[in-house]
Amino acid sequence: MTTINIPVSVLNLVPIRKGRQGKEAIEEMVDLAQATEKMGYTRYWIAEHHNTPTLVSSATAMLIKHTLEHTEQIRVGSGGIMLPNHAPLVVAEQFGTMATIYPDRLDLGLGRAPGTDMGTASALRRSQHDGVHTFPTDVNDLLTYFGPEKIQGQTKAYPGVDTNIPIYILGSSTDSAVLAAKLGLPYVFASHFAPRYMEEAMSIYRQQFKPSEYLDSPYMIVCLNVIAAESDEEADFELTTMQQFFLNVVRGAGAPLSPPVKNMDTIWSPQEKEMASSMTSGTILGSKDSIREQLTSFQEKYHVDEIMAVSYIYDPEKQKRSYEILKAVVDGK
């Protein structure tokens, strides 16, 4: 039996399920972290989003701290902190504090988009400057803040100095690949919603990578949607929850994570179907055998260093089962 034998990790946007509230979404976030920790997942990342009534992940650092508090060994981090919204010093102090409480368990994934609409981005922004364009400088500031005492400037992050928190560059386009390669940092591509530029971004990152004090060679993580179930038919049914999620994105709607339906064609138009489907082509779907076949094919083609899975499944128990199946496939079981 083929063993894919790469680390697998979890991404969670902390969605509110239909019929539930924000507090339950956070409880389900912790429950999934505890479950995937027992399964042997490498890391558990939480994504920053704002002004989205059905996602509870706006105060990302607080959720990371809460998850660290309720787990024992799994690495916990951001997928990501949207740096245009934050002063690097504040991020360094927050993550430095968490790293002091929970040493060697924290990751900092950084994104250059605001993670929201432009009106909310303006309300969040720390200045009138465009934080997207200062992203490379902000990343370098964070690398300095977490570095040894000898490289610090006059302003330091306490706690934060010498915590050496690993920084990951997140991206959904080729720009971030260039930066990650230039700085010699690990790179995480958001193929779960923006698969279009994945191959090009991977190629740029690997070709342009410069070894650094942080990394000797490229380290490529790809985030994929994964819907695994006992049968292909059941997976197809559960998939409709994710399809409704992305239909919300297309429509700009605020519906919660909804139960699966028998026929999506009664809900979306052909144009909406095409738009949502183009965003979700980075999906691994089906029974254990189907997941194994698709993942093996993916890995034979792309040779990534780690898979990060996001699973939009309405039933939390079936969501956990999906992660179980994926882990079993990776472990060759």
What does this structure look like?
- The chain is α/β, with parallel strands linked by helices.
- It has one domain: TIM Barrel (Alpha-Beta Barrel), CATH 3.20.20.30.
- It has eleven helices and nine strands.
- The protein has an eight-stranded parallel beta barrel, surrounded by eight helices.
- The longest helix has 20 residues, at 232-251.
| CATH fold naming | TIM Barrel
What is the CATH class?
Alpha Beta
The total of beta strands comes to 9
Q: How large is the share of residues in beta strands?
A: 5-15%
| Amino-to-carboxy terminus distance | 8 Å
User: What is the residue-mean pLDDT, rounded to a whole number?
Assistant: 93
Identify low-pLDDT runs: none
Rg (CA only)? 19 Å
- Count of all domains: 1
Helix content class? 40-55%
| CATH level-two architecture | Alpha-Beta Barrel
Overall, the morphology is: globular
Strand order of the largest sheet: 1-2-3-4-5-6-7-9
The helix-and-strand class reads alpha/beta
